[in-house]
Design a protein that fits this description.
Largest sheet: 6 strands, mixed
Bound molecules: copper (II) ion
Shape: globular
Helix content: under 10%
């Protein structure tokens, strides 16, 4: 899968140009021969990188992936994390900076880092099996790339279920000409946690074991009246599988996994994360959903928040009571700090669980006592939106253009066999080019995510920020509800091989993944 001969590739490029126009509009044109693919090692990738805006600054970051010991709700757990903590370093840089991140692999198996949401050079995208071979156990690897757009992003392992441990962190790219008016920001990383937590029978669970359990399918279980859109009697765990988690907002079945804890910046509600601020300060919350199987509904009870960005890109401001984030999504929201202690609530959508953090002025009288978790509301109503329902700021709306290329991606599969796929095909990372969605540089590409399943899926595209519909938000992950079609478009301006997949970690690993493949 590495370097095709650049001379051969260029010769092919010359020959194929004549056929481009005719082939471009075909929605289901046969897959190109692999020799035509612009692979991560192609000289074109370096050429595009040299054209990216440059600040001339370099930001260095070392990330040591290794076993980590931590305590959650009084229970000792061991997991895998970066730099010895449950919460990985937040990387901060500015647009045009060059990030040089060195990963040292202290795990017993290969690992990689994906820089989620960035339109970065393809050979730094960190997809084990597609854009790189992974860093072997004991090995070291340098990710070296320019940061093209400001915003709230994150990074995580892209090897099997590793992200479901603590191998993820925030990546904030500042805009030297930041137009948003705020005093400071608070990066909030939310996660559903299962790794190393003992189940009823006393054995510590790992994400791989949960994956194995789910993969057995539920064909033999009597679950027809639970979940899948029914209201039932509420979420009920069966082993590590969660039955009956229902969210009206998500159109039915909310999640598959019984998650014992939820984390807010590496902490549970028993010992919540605290942000100290002054009353009256405008704080930009940078909220990242790093979970594997949980959407979060985030809000401050009794106080409205103003949504300003989705997946790093600005949106027309919306005042809401709460915002829903699917896995992989980010939302930036402005909040004015009130005197005292204010909970920032993250409800696990459909799972009747919550986690919270606190904004504290540290000076309140009477209101200064943090609320007990049990006293926090289990509902956030009123005006509730998600990134997929927002409108792009005019500055980032794509110019109107008829698509040159249209691809349909039917989301398929279900809980019975746990056979999630795209167009009925379950992706196999050993054969990444088996059923590609081919595109060419310079095209306007339209993707239609058509959900044929009984469950919502947060669909993510690597290396690009698509636009929902004609003027919706610019995003790289979007909630697609059961029976719904979400149409997105983007300009093919970043050659390489890029995954698109459901950001439910379990769905992706079982096959709801595909490659959007640039061909010459
Ligand atoms: Cu999914």
């Amino acid at each position: 899968m590495h370097n095709n001969n650049p001379l051969n590739r260029r010769a092919f490029l010359g020959l194929s140009l004549a056929g481009t126009a005719a082939a471009a509009l075909a929605a289901c044109s046969p897959a190109a021969p692999d020799a035509a693919r612009i692979l991560p090692g192609d000289p074109l990738i370096a050429e595009y990188e040299s054209r990216r805006v440059s600040s001339g600054k370099v930001v260095n970051q070392s990330l040591d992936a290794a076993p980590v010991a931590a305590a959650l709700n009084g229970r000792a757990i061991t997991t895998w994390g970066y730099n010895g903590a449950l919460q990985a370093p937040t990387i901060r840089a500015s647009v045009g900076d060059q990030l040089k991140a060195t990963i040292k692999n202290g795990l017993g198996e290969a690992t990689s880092i994906h820089w989620h949401g960035l339109a970065l050079r393809n050979n730094a995208d960190g997809v084990h099996g597609l854009t790189e071979d992974g860093t072997p156990a004991g090995g070291e690897h340098l990710y070296d790339f320019k940061l093209p757009h400001p915003g709230t992003y994150w990074y995580h392992s892209h090897v099997e279920m590793q992200r479901e441990r603590a191998l993820y962190g925030a990546l904030i790219i500042e805009d030297p000409q930041e137009p948003l008016d705020y005093h400071r920001d608070w990066v909030i990383v939310l996660d559903d946690w299962i790794d190393g937590v003992a189940t009823k029978d006393g054995a510590a669970t790992t994400p791989d074991e949960v994956m194995k359990e789910l993969s057995g399918g539920m064909g033999g279980m009597d679950h027809g009246s639970m979940g899948h859109g029914s209201t039932g009697s509420g979420p009920m765990p069966m082993g590590n599988t969660l039955m009956g988690a229902v969210s009206e907002y998500l159109g039915g079945d909310a999640g598959d996994v019984a998650t014992p804890f939820h984390l807010f910046n590496g902490a549970t509600s028993e010992d919540p994360a605290v942000f100290v601020a002054k009353a009256g300060e405008r704080i930009r919350l940078r909220i990242i959903n790093a979970a594997g199987d949980t959407a979060y509904r985030v809000g401050l009870p009794g106080q409205r928040i103003t949504l300003t960005h989705s997946d790093g890109f600005p949106v027309k401001h919306e005042e809401v009571d709460a915002v829903v984030l699917g896995m992989g999504e980010r939302i930036d929201a402005l909040v004015t700090v009130q005197e005292g202690t204010t909970p920032v609530l993250a409800l696990a959508e459909g799972k009747r669980q919550l986690v919270h953090g606190l904004i504290s002025t540290g000076t309140g009288t009477g209101t200064g006592t943090p609320p007990l978790p049990a006293s926090l509301p289990m509902e956030l109503g009123g005006t509730v939106l998600d990134g997929g329902k927002l409108t792009a700021d005019p500055a980032v709306v794509l110019a109107a253009r008829t698509p040159d290329r249209v691809h349909e991606m039917r989301l398929t599969g279900g809980m019975e066999k746990y056979d999630w796929g795209i167009n009925g095909h379950r992706f196999d990372m050993a054969k990444p080019f088996e059923r590609t969605f081919d595109i060419r540089a310079g095209e306007r590409v339209q993707l239609a995510f058509i959900n044929d399943t009984d469950m919502w899926h947060p669909m993510h595209l690597h290396g690009h920020t698509f636009q929902i519909g004609e003027a919706g938000a610019r995003k790289d992950a979007v909630i697609v509800r059961p029976g719904e079609t979400v149409t997105v478009q983007f300009d093919a301006d970043n050659p390489g091989q890029w995954l698109t997949h459901c950001h439910n970690a379990y769905h992706a690993e079982r096959g709801m993944m595909a490659v959007v493949s640039y061909i010459a």
